[in-house]
Design a protein that fits this description.
Elements: H1 2-12, H2 16-34, H3 49-56, E1 70-75, E2 79-82, E3 85-94, E4 99-108, E5 112-118, E6 134-137, E7 151-153, E8 156-159, E9 168-173, E10 176-180, H4 183-186, E11 193-199, E12 202-205, E13 209-210, E14 222-228, E15 233-240, H5 251-259, E16 272-278, E17 284-286, E18 302-308
Antiparallel strand pairs: 1-3, 2-3, 3-4, 4-15, 5-18, 6-17, 6-18, 7-8, 7-11, 9-10, 9-11, 12-13, 12-16, 14-15, 14-16
């Protein structure tokens, strides 16, 4: 249609100016008739680089305490063991790809009292007195089965502070828990101390900062003390592999998990945390609850025992 109109104009008005117009119209119509439809390239999906970094960068110190440090595979509800003492269990995958059990014993220090005892026959379950609720390994020990560092129970010094006995001292005093690091503070933790245990390393520094900076490649079952609620609540966390009970996460991955949201439902990590043991002696025993117990494969000469608090006095 456009080509015929251009030809008619050329016949009726044969002027130079119109001749140029006619030629332009004819050329335009010819191009339009022969033009090929324009093809648009197919859209390419864009992958977020942030998502890629989040999925792969699990060993960066900047990731400490974030939720991807620990994946919860399954979780059981909290169970009340006794007034002031609850327990829960989950199966988790750590950032180092270790799959393990995760058991938490949560003690309200206003209701539950802690003391250190010598384990009869070096068996954790034998450390439970008739009124005891649970027991957990009480830190490192030497070849002669003596504690490697300070150990205080009911204001009684069972073992003195030792340089090299551990980088942290867990102190329970006035129904409140603190993690101490300096030698000056740790040399005198006995005044009115309900419990003092020297061990290490400090997995979470006071203030919630990770205390482990790199993955050394070690993979062992582990036990730790985790301070919450400004010292009013103390968690004991035990983790191990069901398939190989002496195995578990590395210290770096364990510290990551403690510093961040936990499978127990806590949105915040530990305010401070101390490693109590790793390897064959790591374990806990809860009276009448095999589900929340892990029997150590090695000797446990000393144990922290949890029992109902007796008002007004320290129990040795």
């Amino acid at each position: 249609m456009q080509a015929n109109q251009g030809t008619l104009l050329c016949v009726l008005r044969p002027r130079a100016s119109l001749l140029s117009l006619c030629l332009a119209l004819l050329m335009g119509c010819d191009r339009a008739a022969n033009a090929q439809p324009q093809r648009h390239p197919r859209a390419t999906p864009v992958v977020s680089t942030v998502a890629l970094r989040d999925a792969s960068n699990t060993h960066d110190d900047r990731d400490a305490g974030e939720s991807r440090a620990l994946s919860t595979l399954s979780r059981e509800p909290w169970v009340t063991i006794a007034p002031g003492l609850r327990a829960m269990r989950a199966r988790v995958r750590f950032s180092d790809e270790t799959e393990a059990e995760w058991v938490v014993l949560r003690a309200n220090l206003a209701t539950v009292q802690l003391r250190a005892v010598r384990s009869p026959e070096e068996q954790l379950q034998q450390a439970l007195a008739p009124n005891a609720l649970a027991a957990i390994v009480a830190g490192f020990f030497d070849h002669d089965k003596r504690p490697s560092g300070v150990l205080v129970s009911g204001a009684e010094v069972l073992s003195p502070y030792r340089v090299g006995g551990g980088t942290g001292v867990l102190v329970i005093r006035d129904q409140s828990a603190r993690l101490r690091a300096s030698i000056d503070e740790a040399q005198s933790p006995t005044q009115r101390a309900e419990l003092a245990v020297q061990c290490g390393p400090r997995l979470v520094e006071p203030g919630g900062i990770m205390g482990i900076r790199s993955d050394r490649g070690d993979r062992f079952a582990r036990a730790a003390a985790c301070i919450r609620d400004r010292g009013q609540t103390l968690d004991f966390v035990v983790t191990w592999s069901e398939e190989a009970p002496m195995r578990g996460p590395g210290l770096y991955a364990f510290a990551q998990a403690l510093a961040g949201p936990s499978p127990s439902g806590d949105l915040q990590g530990c305010e401070a945390a101390l490693n109590l043991d790793g390897g064959p002696s790591a374990g806990a025993h809860v009276r009448h609850s095999a589900q929340h117990s892990h029997a150590p494969l090695g000797p446990v000469p000393w144990a922290i025992v949890l029992q109902p608090r007796v008002r007004g006095r320290l129990v040795r």
